C-alpha cells in the first residue's frame, strides 16, 4: 500500500519531497494512530481497573466492613486481589495523597474519594456513587453495574481518543509552524502543510517504541522523540532554495 511506502521513505531517507502527495485520508489515519498510541496506556489501565472492580463480586466475603459517612470512608483497612488486580480499602489516605499508594493498586476506596490508577483524580468523590453507603451497598452496586461497566469504558475510550486527536492537531501545528517559519527565513521553499504531513508519519514511528516501553515498564521514555531530529533535518535539506 502507498500509505506504508511513506514510512519506508522516512527510515531510508528516500524521496522526501514526495510527502507532499500525502492525502487527507492518510493524514487523518496518522492523527488517529497517534491519538490511539498516546491513549493506549490509560485505556488498558482503565480496563484492568474495571476488571478488578468486577472481580469484587467473586470475593464478597472478603470486602472489609465500612461506611461512607458525610462523604468519608470509615471502617477497616484492607487490600484485596480481585480480577488479578489489587483493590485498596482505607480511611487513612486522602484522594489528594495518591503518591502514597503502591503502584500495583488499580482501584482504591480512600478517605474522601475513589482512586483509579492513571485515570481518576481527587475530584472523584463518593457523591458520584451516592447509593453506596457501606460494604453491602458496594457489593449490590457492582452486581448491578457489572454488565454495563465495559460499555461505559468503551464510550469513555472513544471520547478520550477524540479529545487526544483534537490536542494532537493543536500540538503538532504548534510544533511544525516554527520549523516552517525557520525554513522560510533560511530561503527555503517551505510549505507548512508538508511539514505537518511528514511530522505525522515521523510521530507515529517514534511513538510505537515509546508506548511499547511504557506498557512494559510503566514509564514512557518520551525523550526518545529527540531521535526524530535527523528525519526533520534531512527533510529540511531536501527543500529547494528560493530563487532570488
From TrEMBL:
It comes from Salinicoccus sediminis. It comes from the Bacteria. Keywords: Membrane, Transmembrane, Transmembrane helix. This is DUF1189 domain-containing protein. Coiled coil: none annotated. The chain crosses the membrane at residues 27-47, 149-174, 195-216, 222-239.
Amino acid at each position: 500500500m502507498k500509505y506504508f511506502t511513506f514510512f519506508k521513505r522516512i527510515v531510508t531517507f528516500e524521496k522526501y519531497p514526495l510527502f507532499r502527495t500525502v492525502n487527507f485520508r492518510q493524514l487523518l489515519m496518522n492523527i488517529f494512530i497517534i491519538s490511539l498510541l498516546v491513549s493506549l496506556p490509560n485505556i488498558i489501565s482503565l480496563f484492568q481497573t474495571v476488571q478488578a472492580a468486577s472481580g469484587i463480586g467473586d470475593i464478597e466475603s472478603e470486602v472489609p466492613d465500612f461506611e461512607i459517612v458525610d462523604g468519608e470512608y470509615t471502617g477497616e483497612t484492607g487490600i484485596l486481589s480481585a480480577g488479578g488486580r489489587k483493590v485498596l480499602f482505607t480511611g487513612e489516605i486522602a484522594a489528594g495523597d495518591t503518591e502514597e499508594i503502591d503502584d500495583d493498586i488499580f482501584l482504591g476506596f480512600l478517605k474522601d474519594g475513589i482512586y483509579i490508577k492513571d485515570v481518576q483524580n481527587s475530584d472523584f468523590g463518593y457523591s458520584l456513587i451516592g447509593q453506596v453507603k457501606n460494604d453491602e451497598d458496594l457489593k449490590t452496586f457492582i452486581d448491578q453495574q457489572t454488565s454495563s461497566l465495559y460499555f461505559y469504558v468503551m464510550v469513555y475510550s472513544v471520547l478520550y481518543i477524540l479529545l487526544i486527536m483534537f490536542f494532537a492537531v493543536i500540538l503538532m501545528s504548534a510544533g511544525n509552524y516554527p520549523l516552517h517559519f525557520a525554513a522560510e527565513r533560511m530561503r527555503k521553499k517551505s510549505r507548512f502543510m508538508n511539514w505537518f504531513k511528514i511530522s505525522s508519519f515521523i510521530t507515529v514511528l517514534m511513538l510505537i517504541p515509546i508506548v511499547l516501553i511504557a506498557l512494559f515498564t510503566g514509564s514512557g521514555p518520551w525523550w526518545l522523540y529527540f531521535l526524530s531530529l535527523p528525519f526533520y533535518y534531512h527533510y529540511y535539506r531536501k527543500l529547494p532554495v528560493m530563487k532570488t
